[in-house]
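Hey, I'm writing a tutorial for new members on how sequence and structure tokens pair up, and I'd like a real worked example in the thread rather than a made-up one. If someone can provide the structure for the chain below, I'll link this post from the tutorial.
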Amino acid sequence: MTDYLPAVMAMLGQAQNRYANPSAWDRLHAELGIRLPTDYQTLVDAYAPIQLNGHLSLPHPATTRWNLGDWIRDTARAWSEVSWEDLDPDEDPRLLFGLTELSFGTRNGLWPIASTDRGETLFLMAADGMLSGILVEDGEGGWAQYEMSFAEWLYRYLVGEDMAGPNTSAFYPGPVQLRRLPMTADERPERWSGPERGM
């Protein structure tokens, strides 16, 4: 059985840990009222703020720019303003996944943790403050559920599986392409490749 956290890190290359800061996570968890998964924290600390393979972005809680806490709050607020009435049954996540309510950034709601430039948003599902499973909205009203850890989801995303619903793969052969997001207006994005992975 694959141990997904080290498998993902093997694809991404040596951890940078440029902004790793346990107190930033403690502050974020206190503000949010939940604890984000350990594998997610490990990957964010190791590489973020980063864009992977030109699409998937991960912010970090210890930076001013690309700040994870700000992004979670802003994204949850924006999703909370969406009208969920009169949806087609095949586009209503409440009906698709048996959710009693649809809320964002609450103890029994969805927590945004990553997004792509293709419009996809990745959410962790919470029930009574405990996180379990992942929902992904594909940017066009389609939803998909994944009963797995973030590390497994990211691994499968990077190897080209459909991880935002049918026909959503974003596979690029060869090493994973990483792009460090600029921290000031004058800084240029830094690009590099992960190790060869035989794909």
